[in-house]
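Figure 6 in text form: structure in, sequence out.
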């Protein structure tokens, strides 16, 4: 029998399962940066288990880790299995992705990077990211009057609640006429 291929932390060894026994959740909507996750798995190993619905084998949390591990040719992955109904499974899928934030304490991040001696490997932070953090910390971008300008790389969203489907269509039409990028969804 061929040797299992993985880089699972020893503390998670008891949770190792064949990667073929689980599958990505068909409703997972998160677009992961698989390259960054592969880099992390290669440098740091798998340091936390993914979460799998015991009944369906679908991944509720860790779809990106699974995809990266597969991409690295892993045969095993650490997975915790939980028993949930379909509604709770969807709630977990949503919160795992929406609870992640793009807001950080930049002073704390930069302090950690300084303590790592500037070695960004396995952090998911690129040299460009690091330079941007430093620039933002030192006042960010400014126009000719010295007023701070928002970098175009940032994305901002607003959720507007409509009374009904007709009202939603009217709002979308109005916002698009104003040149805004809009998407409709139902909560």
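Output sequence:
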């Amino acid at each position: 029998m061929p040797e299992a291929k993985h880089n699972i932390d020893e503390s998670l060894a008891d949770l190792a399962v064949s990667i073929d026994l689980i599958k990505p959740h068909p409703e997972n909507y998160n677009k992961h940066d698989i390259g960054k996750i592969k880099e992390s798995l290669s440098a740091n190993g798998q340091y936390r288990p993914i979460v799998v619905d015991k009944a369906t084998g679908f991944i509720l949390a860790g779809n990106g880790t699974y995809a990266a591990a597969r991409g690295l040719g892993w045969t095993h992955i650490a997975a915790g299995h939980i028993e949930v109904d379909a509604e709770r499974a969807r709630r977990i899928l949503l919160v795992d992705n929406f609870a992640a934030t793009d807001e950080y304490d930049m002073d704390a991040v930069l302090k950690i990077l300084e303590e790592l001696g500037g070695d960004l490997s396995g952090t998911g932070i690129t040299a460009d990211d690091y330079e941007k953090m430093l620039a933002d910390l030192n006042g960010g971008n400014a126009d000719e009057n010295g007023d701070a300008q928002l970098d175009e790389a940032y994305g901002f969203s607003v959720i507007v609640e409509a009374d009904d489907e007709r009202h939603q269509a009217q709002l979308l039409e109005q916002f698009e006429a104003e040149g805004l990028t809009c998407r409709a969804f139902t909560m």
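Caption detail: The chain has three domains: 10-98, 106-149, 157-187.
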